[in-house]
Amino acid sequence: MSNLDRFIETFLNGAVLAKYTPAILQGVWVTIELSILIVIAGTLLGTSLACIRAYRLRPVSFLIVIYADIFRALPPLVLILLAYFGLPNVGVTLSSSTVLFVILGLTLGAFAEEIVWAGITSTDKGQWEAARSTGLGFTQTLIFVVLPQAVRMVIPPLTNRAIAITKMTALGTVIGVPDILNQATTAQSFSGNASPLTLAAVAYVVLFLPFVILSRWLESRFAWKKG
Amino acid sequence: MSKTTTRPAVRKPEAENGGAAPGAGRPTLEVIGLRKSFGTLEVLKNVSLAVEKSEMVFVLGRSGSGKSTMLRCCNRLEEPDAGEILLEGQPITGSGVNLDKVRRRIGMVFQGFNLYPHLDARRNITLALRKVLKQSRDEADTRAAAALTRVGLADKAGNYPSQLSGGQQQRVAIARAIALEPAVMLFDEPTSALDPELVGDVLGVMRELKEDGMTMLVVSHEMAFAREAADRVVFMADGHIVEQGPPEDLFTNPQHESTRAFLSRYSYGP
Ligand SMILES: Nc1ncnc2c1ncn2[C@@H]1O[C@H](COP(=O)(O)OP(=O)(O)OP(=O)(O)O)[C@@H](O)[C@H]1O
Ligand SMILES: [Mg+2]
């Protein structure tokens, strides 16, 4: 057997691929669903917290900063394991998918809060003054004038961060979430062949490449032109 | 106060309110004993000024003399340390005042335009009409169109600020303010960020506003325009109003030392 044959046999085995493709496709759906939920929940949470922080109520802002710093500092895997194996001991049993969603949602929320907050603080002070001078209130100014500009400004870093964190759904494998990677490793151990992992890699590329390209496009698009 | 050279044309702010209609007989905007410090820097030291209805008052003074601070105190973008400000006879300083309600009656135009970059010209104007005056979309659009027509930009309603020249942006900013039908307009160096050839358009709009009876308090160094269009010129130095009067008098016969120094530096006049 030539080296090439051995390579194909190991990584691109037709029979194995045919057998396990349906399982991996199931995993694709799980990954997509979780990713969408995490992105929606994380950006909503982060944006809301950044808005609340704009009111500059000291104790509230302090709590938000603590949350954001802790979740940005900790490796999500640690929190996932802690939640999945630790919480049942205090009577809270969550499914593996729920744990993954909550932890990654909170992690994205922490990063999104910091990113949107940076956008809010870098919005020109004159925007606040102009809006308030027409009689718009603080909340109205925040929602209709400042936030739209802030979000536009931070869409590229936010997209990058969302991609980085949704990719971490693969961490769910360690607690048994039936995502792409989990299906692939299961198939790999049953078949004794690495081809399902190859398929998983292809699935991730197909899934995430469009978003990577989208973020590149957004970056060039929103590199604006101020004033 | 001792530094102020009072001229006959200036009304005393203490003039009694007749008591009948609120604000009747009172100046449209009245600043009484205004003080403001930033930390240890005393920027306004007892400033009093009255702007009568339909009057255009120009404020001159060296950089740092407190012109912007005084203007910004008038709609409380800056919080005065002491003193009183009355709009149409009603106090707008103090705690019991609904600031948002007051501010919609006081238009402000900024040096840097401060248009909302994510909204087109029409929606820059309609935002406050919709959210503050609670107008319907149709009402607001109609009023925005009228305001844009007044500033000569009826055809630019759909343009975003980045698609407008500086002069056009400033005129949209003026339209945004006048659409709320304010009792008084404050201008803080409305033309100093503009290329010289665009200044005339903005001044032209201000002249028309004046002809339509708008009450205006203007910080600007457009001396020729002040001389031609202002009813009164106020000169500020070192946190005080040191001198005020009709432009002709003030420019040709300044009484105060710092006014003279300022005018000669601007090398105004023949
Ligand atoms: N928010 C602030 N914090 C601290 N100091 C301030 C603040 N705003 C203004 N000042 C100071 O107050 C003084 C008066 O400022 P102001 O902007 O009123 O002057 P101005 O007459 O408008 O000057 P210019 O012609 O340069 O616009 C300046 O010394 C300025 O540095
Ligand atoms: Mg100024």
From TrEMBL, chain A:
<feature type="transmembrane region" description="Helical">
    <location>
        <begin position="28"/>
        <end position="52"/>
    </location>
</feature>
<feature type="domain" description="ABC transmembrane type-1">
    <location>
        <begin position="28"/>
        <end position="215"/>
    </location>
</feature>
<dbReference type="Pfam" id="PF00528">
    <property type="entry name" value="BPD_transp_1"/>
</dbReference>
<dbReference type="InterPro" id="IPR043429">
    <property type="entry name" value="ArtM/GltK/GlnP/TcyL/YhdX-like"/>
</dbReference>
<keyword id="KW-1133">Transmembrane helix</keyword>
<dbReference type="GO" id="GO:0006865">
    <property type="term" value="P:amino acid transport"/>
</dbReference>
<feature type="transmembrane region" description="Helical">
    <location>
        <begin position="99"/>
        <end position="118"/>
    </location>
</feature>
<keyword id="KW-0813">Transport</keyword>
<keyword id="KW-0472">Membrane</keyword>
<comment type="similarity">
    <text>Belongs to the binding-protein-dependent transport system permease family. HisMQ subfamily.</text>
</comment>
<dbReference type="InterPro" id="IPR000515">
    <property type="entry name" value="MetI-like"/>
</dbReference>
<dbReference type="GO" id="GO:0022857">
    <property type="term" value="F:transmembrane transporter activity"/>
</dbReference>
<dbReference type="InterPro" id="IPR010065">
    <property type="entry name" value="AA_ABC_transptr_permease_3TM"/>
</dbReference>
<keyword id="KW-0812">Transmembrane</keyword>
<protein>
    <submittedName>
        <fullName>Amino acid ABC transporter membrane protein 1 (PAAT family)</fullName>
    </submittedName>
</protein>
<keyword id="KW-0029">Amino-acid transport</keyword>
<feature type="transmembrane region" description="Helical">
    <location>
        <begin position="130"/>
        <end position="151"/>
    </location>
</feature>
<feature type="transmembrane region" description="Helical">
    <location>
        <begin position="64"/>
        <end position="87"/>
    </location>
</feature>
<keyword id="KW-1003">Cell membrane</keyword>
<feature type="transmembrane region" description="Helical">
    <location>
        <begin position="197"/>
        <end position="218"/>
    </location>
</feature>
<dbReference type="InterPro" id="IPR035906">
    <property type="entry name" value="MetI-like_sf"/>
</dbReference>
<dbReference type="GO" id="GO:0043190">
    <property type="term" value="C:ATP-binding cassette (ABC) transporter complex"/>
</dbReference>
TrEMBL record, chain B:
<keyword id="KW-0472">Membrane</keyword>
<dbReference type="GO" id="GO:0005886">
    <property type="term" value="C:plasma membrane"/>
</dbReference>
<protein>
    <submittedName>
        <fullName>Amino acid ABC transporter ATP-binding protein (PAAT family)</fullName>
    </submittedName>
</protein>
<keyword id="KW-0067">ATP-binding</keyword>
<dbReference type="Pfam" id="PF00005">
    <property type="entry name" value="ABC_tran"/>
</dbReference>
<comment type="similarity">
    <text>Belongs to the ABC transporter superfamily.</text>
</comment>
<feature type="domain" description="ABC transporter">
    <location>
        <begin position="29"/>
        <end position="263"/>
    </location>
</feature>
<feature type="compositionally biased region" description="Low complexity">
    <location>
        <begin position="16"/>
        <end position="25"/>
    </location>
</feature>
<dbReference type="InterPro" id="IPR003593">
    <property type="entry name" value="AAA+_ATPase"/>
</dbReference>
<feature type="region of interest" description="Disordered">
    <location>
        <begin position="1"/>
        <end position="26"/>
    </location>
</feature>
<dbReference type="GO" id="GO:0015424">
    <property type="term" value="F:ABC-type amino acid transporter activity"/>
</dbReference>
<dbReference type="InterPro" id="IPR017871">
    <property type="entry name" value="ABC_transporter-like_CS"/>
</dbReference>
<dbReference type="GO" id="GO:0005524">
    <property type="term" value="F:ATP binding"/>
</dbReference>
<keyword id="KW-0029">Amino-acid transport</keyword>
<keyword id="KW-0813">Transport</keyword>
<dbReference type="InterPro" id="IPR050086">
    <property type="entry name" value="MetN_ABC_transporter-like"/>
</dbReference>
<dbReference type="InterPro" id="IPR027417">
    <property type="entry name" value="P-loop_NTPase"/>
</dbReference>
<keyword id="KW-0547">Nucleotide-binding</keyword>
<dbReference type="InterPro" id="IPR003439">
    <property type="entry name" value="ABC_transporter-like_ATP-bd"/>
</dbReference>
<dbReference type="GO" id="GO:0016887">
    <property type="term" value="F:ATP hydrolysis activity"/>
</dbReference>
<dbReference type="InterPro" id="IPR030679">
    <property type="entry name" value="ABC_ATPase_HisP-typ"/>
</dbReference>
<keyword id="KW-1003">Cell membrane</keyword>
